[in-house]
Amino acid sequence: MHIPDGFLDVKTVVSTYALSSAAGVASLSRVRKKLEDEKAPLLGVLAAFIFAAQMVNFPVLNGTSGHLIGGLLAALLVGPWAGFFVIASVLFVQAIGFQDGGIAAFGANVFNMAVIGTIGAYWIFVGVKRLTRSYWVSAAVAAWAGVFLASIACALELWASGHVALDLVLPAMAGVHAVIGIGEAVITVGVVRAIAAVRPDVLPDFVSVSPQEVAAHEA
Amino acid sequence: MKRETRTRAMIGFAAGMVAIAIGIVVFLAPLASTWPDGLDSTAEKLGFAGRAVEGIIKTPLADYSVPGLPAPWSTIVAGLVGTVLALAVGLGLAYILKATRKHGTRVSR
Questions:
Q1: Considering the domain boundaries, does residue B74 fall inside one?
Q2: Are strands A65-66 and A58-59 parallel, antiparallel or unpaired?
Q3: What is the distance in angstroms between the Cα of B69 and the nearest Cα belonging to chain A?
Q4: Domain of A118?
Q5: Cβ contacts (< 8 Å) between B53 and chain A: which residues?
Q6: How many angstroms separate the Cα of A90 from the Cα of each of A69, A125, A126, B103, B107?
Q7: Residue A22 domain-assigned?
Q8: pLDDT category, A209, cuts 50, 70, 90?
Q9: What are residue A58's DSSP bridge partners?
Q10: Could you report the per-residue pLDDT of A114-149, keeping only the tens digit for each?
Q11: Does residue B91 belong to any structural domain of this protein?
């Protein structure tokens, strides 16, 4: 759902840039405090992986395709705040290098996919995990919800820009992305399951090792 | 695990993920559906697709293709360039985040 230039009016461009910048500043201080040194290179690695995965459009309903966003995937590996920077990096390369997503619309695309689709999806993951106690159910639900809610944000931005009626664009965007979100859930769970099988140690919410065990291991 | 072991293990994981990313670009990206995505098809259906302004910044790799190269190489080369660029931007950001950390702060498990 990369918005091209021309779809958004000036007030929507300015306000989404402001929201995304605020999220960037908030993420920056949290990443500085929380990102483990060993995990820092994963920002680049995940950006590369998600860029590649986003190229693979899969067909959904009636002549429409969708592709992974990867927001929850990134957040499950490096946390929501570093995940914000992973998805923002991917969107930056796509906008600057490939004309996929506009330059003026960059703020909106970051807001939809890196804020809602990543930080928001991770919060949903945490909430659902508290309720269901299942890592995989929570991951699937949150991956789907991240895409679905991002598409609603996108629809609201298009409507706010005054080019399309809300009662048309909201059901159209939410409807098709409710289906694309299933793809997001399947790919996210598939990739994280594969990682959990070979390297569970890189998934912080998957293995919860007690501090005593870590101390015993390091001794 | 000791710090050195953890660092080495993380580098192994990183190398594996990059290798898989390259595999995705080479083997899967050329097979991607060419149908419009959810937003584009909505824009076409609701009649505002024509508002799109292409190329405020002109780039040679627009639409994930290299002018003059035949399919599938066009997609593969564009995809590999993008994958390397994304890796570089992410690593650059990670470096800046670490470099601008308060003096002496080391974050570890």
A1: yes
A2: antiparallel
A3: 16
A4: 10-218
A5: 4-6, 102
A6: 10, 22, 24, 29, 25
A7: yes
A8: very low
A9: A66
A10: 999 999 999 999 999 999 999 999 999 999 999 999
A11: yes
